[in-house]
């Protein structure tokens, strides 16, 4: 008899909604993120100018829809640099940082969570104390302090932003790993003589991956906002490199005369964070109702 | 209840020790403090004298102990910009920051909580959708973009309000709105999901089934239970009164703690940064502690089962 329910599950038609297209807003999000990825990957090919190229005769020229010409479709900044080209490279920088930082945070947090779940006792207490510690300081302040103490470099900046949501992954990974260890499959693999690394890496991790992926989608827009916030303050990505927040920060001085310098990156930031959060909410509702 | 309180106090104390340790470690890792504070081209004798004066020639653990001693006696070093005590510099700026964050907190609470409750009670209505759209917008529009858009509209286009500075109360309007709207959106979203969670519980169904008027079900059964998770995020907002306006203060050139922090970071004025870091951490830890203790008051189940709830 035990086979009966299994074959029913296997033979039964998949739930109808699985074949449905995602809702229109989520579709919009997916398309926008796809577009951003293409722009980031093909930045060198599609960018009309180098992002540092000056065009001193066309300084602060307005975008096409405000009476400018097609040479600079989104206008130019105070040094005559093409806003569209700068925007394209900024998208690339901001996305690389956000992806890098999200992955660093997920790997770090999951590893610590697994360590806590495996060793329990003092290791677990130490990890949980670290979690308390990161909850006690707003991340922006912590990040600013680290930047003040260590100065700024791209690598440090990515690692630093990676610390942003680590405690969330640590909490989730620890909780899920503890409950997974109590389940048959983990015990069975262990009985077969698998080492802990194999049990966690090959068996527990794939089983809890959907929850972790949902958390990554929810953390990603926060990382974009942090990066752009810090760069806006002039403490993140440093010139001549350019990022979305950095463009808004410099464009601010020309708010009255040339608002397009900051409006273009601002719109991209808002649409990107909006898209990823829409996708994240949708994924969460589909994959993991417990996170709600 | 006594045991519950004691555990929370111990945890808060441990976290404070960790924050101070973090500041100490980071400060030592970042290089020779004497060299940093005196500057790269200071004469070696002056650097040595500084080391002796600050005990930097002692073994690390002695430095660590005396660092604790200094901090708890309120000695947080001097700003390298003008040689004034860092703590005085920071305390001076606090009223300006509170002038923004306190009214903003009032807006957040007055707008966010009712919006969240109504959205949950009239789930899937037009009102609910409007609140959710507002909430999503509040989350995805960064405060510096919102602030600059408000400046563009109300200061540049319409000319109704000043765009930055701190001369009169009118200068505070735009920053307060920027801070308040973002926070209200987050709070509305949170309150709504807390309410929905509670409204789905069996005790709500039981109460309605036995004929209690809906108004009373909401007031006596739903709201008190939904208050418990909502208190956490409100506690967090209280904790960030001092440092919650870093970006907004910079957008509006408002001379508060946040702007002090940004300039201190840019100039690597370590004493000031460290002072703000510790002050903010203490505020947050205190706010979290109060929230934890409030939990005990709001939810009698947590008093006895504190340990069980953590497992």
Task: Please explain how this structure is put together.
The complex is a heterodimer of chains A (292) and B (311). Chain A is 69% helix and 0% strand. By secondary structure, chain A is an all-alpha fold. Chain A has one domain (24-261, 268-291): MetI-like (MetI-like fold, Orthogonal Bundle). Chain A is elongated. Residues 1-14 of chain A have low confidence and may be disordered. Chain B has helices at 2-29, 33-38, 44-54, 60-72, 86-121, 126-140, 143-157, 170-199, 202-209, 214-239, 246-251, 257-267, 270-298, 300-304, 306-310. The model of chain B is unreliable at 305-311 (pLDDT under 50). Chain B is mainly α and 311 residues long. The relative contact order of chain B is 0.14. The longest helix of chain B has 36 residues, at 86-121. Chain B contains 15 helices and no strands. Chain B is flat and about 85 Å long. The chains are: A mainly alpha (292), B mainly alpha (311).
Summarize the structure.
The complex is a heterodimer of chains A (292) and B (311). Chain A has 292 residues and is mainly alpha-helical.
Topology:
The complex is a heterodimer of chains A (292) and B (311).
Chain A: H1 3-11, H2 24-41, H3 43-46, H4 83-119, H5 121-136, H6 139-150, H7 154-162, H8 166-181, H9 184-191, H10 196-232, H11 244-251, H12 260-287
Helix pairs in contact in A: 2-4, 2-12, 4-5, 4-7, 4-8, 4-10, 4-11, 4-12, 5-8, 8-10, 9-10, 10-11, 10-12, 11-12
Chain B: H1 2-29, H2 33-38, H3 44-54, H4 60-72, H5 86-121, H6 126-140, H7 143-157, H8 170-199, H9 202-209, H10 214-239, H11 246-251, H12 257-267, H13 270-298, H14 300-304, H15 306-310
Helix pairs in contact in B: 1-13, 5-6, 5-8, 5-13, 6-8, 7-8, 8-10, 9-10, 10-13, 12-13
